[in-house]
Amino acid sequence: MPVEINCCERQAHMDRVQGTIFDIQRFALHDGPGIRTTVFLKGCPLRCIWCHNPESQDFNPQLSFDRAKCTDCFRCVKACPAGAHKVVDGRHVADHGRCCLSAKCVEACPNGALKIIGRKQSVREVMDVVIRDIAYYNNSGGGMTISGGEPMSQFRFTLELLKAAKEKGIHTCLDTSGYAPGDLFERVLPYTDLFLYDYKATDDKEHLRLTGVSNRLILDNLDLLYREGASIILRCPLVKGINDTDEHFMGIAEIDRKYPGLAGIELMAYHNMGHEKYERIGRKPEMEMLPTTDEATKESWLERLKAFGCGKAIIG
Amino acid sequence: MAIGKLTRELHFTEVYKKYKDEHIAIREAMCLKAQFPGFLGGIEDNDLFAGRLDLPAVGITPDEWGPTSFGYYCIEQRLIAEIEDPSLDEDYRQAVKDMLDFWREENTSTKLRRAFPEKMARELYTDDWMNQSGISFPLYRLCGGYINFDKLLQIGIPGLYEEVERYRQKAEREGGDVKFYEGARIALDVFVDTCLHFSNMAFEMAETARTKERAEELRLMGTTLKKITKEKPAHLWEAIQLMWLYSLVADVRNLGRMDVYLGDFYVNDLETGALTEEDALRYLESLWQLIADRNTRVHGRVIIGGKGRRNEENADKFALLAMEATRRVLEVEPQLSLRFYEGMNPALFAKALDVIGEGRTYPILYNDDVNIKAVEEAFGFTTETAEQYVPFGCGEYIIDHQSFGTPSGVINLLKALEVTMHNGIDPMTGRKMGLALGRFEDFETFDELFEAYKKQVEYFVEIMADHEELEYKIAGETAPFLYMSMLYDDCLERGKGMFSGGVRYLGGTLETYGNTNTADSLTAIKKLVYDEKVISKERLLAALDADFEGYEDIRQLLLDAPKYGNDDDTADEMLLKVHNHVCNAVRDQRHRTSLHSYLVVIINNSANTLMGHQTSASADGRRSGLYMNNGNAPMSGMDKNGITAMLNSIVKPSTHIHAGAVQNMKFSREMFTTRRAELEALLKTYFQNGGAQAMITVVNRNDLERAMEEPEKYHHIFVRVGGFSARFVELGRDVQLDILNRTLY
Predict the structure, then answer these.
(1) Which long-range CB contacts under 8 A does A257-264 form with residues at least 24 apart?
(2) Which of A27, A109, A112 sits opposite B644 (nearest CB)?
(3) Nearest CA in chain B to A26
(4) What distance in Å separates the CA atoms of residue B367 and residue B555, rounded to the nearest whole number?
């Protein structure tokens, strides 16, 4: 019977379709309404200079070394088949470029200083975790959120994950930069209950400078999703002195006017907790470490937005 | 030369000697007469009720005053201190020395230990569970009685007299233990004398009171104390005075379903205008302070809410008042415990979260929708009986004034595994212990190891069940414990003391420790030694014996193995195997012994820390001497998948085969303030999923670290240790570390 065949196909699909994820966080309270499980996909086409999850940018698994936990026992040096761990001046130094992802060093390290970030998982493996908290979603109005990285860059996996969640009656959120072909957004739309949609800079050149890409596609996709009736919360990462300009605030207010049916506008204030992660994966931060945004600044942002006619925004 | 502090004890001893060979009820009654009111403390400045404890060094109690002091007890150190004090009168010191010699032979725990059969004496080689290494230890106590306070307040002392007299006459007519009733009558006389003693004290104090208001309070106290000897209580303050003083002379430390027995008094007084809510709250705050000062540490339970309350509406009103008192009185007792069920007045649960959110650790939450069924199954009770379950002490369930179930033994499951892996030798001491079931190196399969572990546990479980039965036998021969018997179902009817055939359901409980560490160790051994063979048995034993010194790589592998508390099926299934095994092995003892029930309790009273000191490194990666897990919780800090995963794990072990398990949870304050809706959904789901209980500590992030550095500034932080709460700064460093290392959600 066709139904059964479809069913079997779906089952096989769930095993076959894989994605690269770097974390699954349960009891997530900041990625959409209620109690949620957030699946973080690895890999992003943007390079936002303030990114607080730099380990989410590369599409491949990578080595992370936490110098603070290292006792220079050099067990990793012996264990590594690729020579990625060296002794320099009596101290352990990691050469991330040489890492072959054997994970031998991770096993050898007695202090948990070494990790491989990112793993391949099938839709089924992820769903096995997600479904465990269904009762919590139902009582809190929560569900599953796919975040990243950029989930749309692993389109197939994201689509299948969304479908699988909807089959279980789970509320779905997609946390996206909006940077992906429009037709792909049209295809995830039926399975996405809420978009958490980033808006990072209004001036296109500024957008290119701060994120590495133009915002035209992003704005087109926003328009497309809105017209198709998607439920959207606009999320605006703000860094004091970087993109909290009048022009950008006017841009946010303009979007609010143009799309009065937005489910919300949230200002995501910069915090510096991601700064040290750059060093762990062998990179230099794209910008200097700034202080975490203080409450007064957040208040002033809301005031300024109000002055430009946008009263909907809240601190996310 | 001066006479010391123990003249009351000398008198008590003389009385005991005089009546030594009398009927045990008469002997006890005469001893009670020697004990009260002399052994009670005076009325203090802010007390609105009379009755404080002034603990005697020699006396009689159904409970315990220290590790081996129960029944007719003697706290030796206090006697020795007097004997060794050269400033005291020579004859007096000699008299105290004679008293010490007498009680060393005659005290109840010595009699109990002397009655141990050979195997029991060998395996329970020491009573010092806090400092010695062992698998099982006896505890000397008859604790956790819940008397019928409701009946006491409804019929009053005159009613109790009448009932005793009626049964006495019946016994005389039809043949029965008349002396038992005579003893009960004398005990009531002692109680009346005690009331009048305090009544006089209150009137005298009123004469010199500093303010007019205080004088008035004291005169009311004096009037009340006189009145309750002649009439049943009519007002809230009379009811509280009666129940409180009776609980002291009975040495019953858990105070029952207070909203039921005080609810009607409270509401009546409100309706007639005899009291305002604020007045009632003042009375309750004073009672709360008296309970706190009694300092039972692990008892002081006050139960509110739940099914099976005859006066639900009034009781709910009182329950709200009780929670407000707990919010206001910053103490670690009473252990206010809220029973709740789907459909109960939601104001109670909401108030509970408010109070917990302020960091008070109370009320402790008990889910009737799970627990009533569990009690029915585990004990074999009807629903109607099970509805009257009450958690006492650290969290053991019994049936209010119908059943008794003292936890008079402990078993350290992790030590049982350790000894099994060392073929009947305790590696901590080199001592032979338990069964030698073969060398770990020779166990070809994981199942062989697990079978050996199970045999070891069962061997000790049988000893502990026999011990519990023996304790009751000795207790029954020693005293009827008259105050308790008079208000425990069936004792007066049957004309028998609590432990001589009086109490309706006489059961027992066994405290298990290290359950999670044992399961996690077995998970790691199965995976790494037997399934994947990445660690040899020899190397594992060597690593454990060396406390991982030089075997850090092995420890890392062990730590990385799946752990209970992460919603991980492999780890959780092993926990279930360990749980089901020990719970059923213990529950089956009712067929071997005369006990109505014998059940596991998975509770804690910092024994996880103390017994952890005596437990070597374990295959879950835990270092030698470190605390073990607490109650049914994951090992501290090993739950890493978020709170929903932790909660999903802890609802898996069956609640239908034991008599209570405790669940500690540690939340940041912001969860309660900024995320209240999600928090409520979280708890609701946990309870719907089968969560039986929750003890919630709320602290600010980093406060505990700061409190360890600057304790003087953090006196206000309350934490839930195991079955009791404490001021964090007053705990020992290792207990502090256990709590600090628990995952903060």
Answers:
(1) A257/A309, A257/A310, A259/A222, A259/A226, A259/A232, A261/A226, A262/A226, A262/A232, A262/A233, A262/A234, A262/A312, A263/A194, A263/A231, A263/A232, A263/A233, A264/A233, A264/A234, A264/A312, A264/A314
(2) A27
(3) B642
(4) 39
Cis preceding-peptide flag for B56 (omega within 30 of 0): no
Alpha carbon distance B355, B357 (integer Å): 5
Of A29, A108, A142, the CB nearest to B553: A108
Does B681 contact chain A (CB < 8 Å)?
Answer: yes
d(CA B526, CA B520): 10
**Among residues A283, A271, A291, A208, which one has the least CA distance to residue A54?**
A283
Taking CA atoms, what residue in B is nearest to A29?
Answer: B678
For residue B115, the model assigns a pLDDT of: 98
Contact B557 A26 (CB under 8 A): no
Q: Which tens digit of pLDDT belongs to each residue from A172-222?
A: 999 999 999 999 999 999 999 999 999 999 999 999 999 999 999 999 999
- Return all residues near B447 (Cβ < 8 A) that are at least 6 apart: none
Nearest to B699 by CA among B733, B677, B729, B663: B729
CA distance B349 to A242: 47
Chain-centre distance for alpha carbon B552: 39
- Chain-chain contact of B681 with A107 (C-beta, under 8 angstroms): no
Cis bond upstream, residue B363 (ω within 30) = yes
Q: How far apart are CA A155 and CA A159, in angstroms?
A: 6
**With 0-12 CB in 10 A as exposed, 13-18 as middle and 19+ as buried, what is B272?**
exposed
Asked if residues A104 and A9 have their Cβ atoms less than 8 Å apart, the reply is no
Task: Read off the tokens for B73.
Answer: 């007890």
Single-letter amino acid, residue B694: A
Q: Cβ separation of A133 and B689 shorter than 8 Å? A: no
Q: If contacts are CB pairs under 8 Å, which of residues 55-114 in chain B contact chain A?
A: none
Q: Which residues of A touch B (CB under 8 A)?
A: 25-27, 29, 34-35, 37, 75, 107-110, 112, 132-133, 135-136, 138-142
Contacts of B272 (CB under 8 A, 6+ apart): none
Name the residue of chain A whose CA is nearest to B642's CA.
Answer: A26
Express as a percent the part of chain B with pLDDT over 90. Answer: 89
Cβ separation A25–B552 shorter than 8 A: no
**What pLDDT, on a 0 to 100 scale, did the predictor assign at position A4?**
52
Helix (H) or strand (E) segment spanning residue B415:
helix B413-421
> Does position A288 have pLDDT exceeding 80, yes or no?
yes
Q: Which residues in chain A are contacts of B621 at CB distance < 8 A?
A: none
Averages of pLDDT over each 10 residues, chain B, 745 residues: 89 98 98 96 96 94 90 96 95 97 96 97 95 96 96 98 98 97 98 98 97 97 98 98 98 97 98 97 98 92 98 98 97 96 97 95 97 98 98 95 96 98 97 97 98 98 98 97 98 97 97 98 98 97 97 92 97 98 98 97 89 97 96 93 95 98 91 91 97 93 87 84 83 85 85
Q: Structural domains in chain A?
A: 2-59+118-315 (3.20.20.70), 62-116 (3.30.70.20)
Cβ–Cβ under 8 Å, residues B359 and B279: no
Q: Are B648 and A75 a contacting pair at CB < 8 A?
A: no
pLDDT number for residue A6 = 66
Give which of A35, A104, A114, A132 to mutate to test B binding, by max B Cβ within 10 Å: A35
d(C-alpha B601, C-alpha B583), whole Å? 9
The pLDDT tens digits of the residues spanning A244-274 come to 999 999 999 999 999 999 999 999 999 888 8
Tell me the mean pLDDT in the region A110-135. 95
Our separate counts of H helices and E strands in chain A read 12, 13
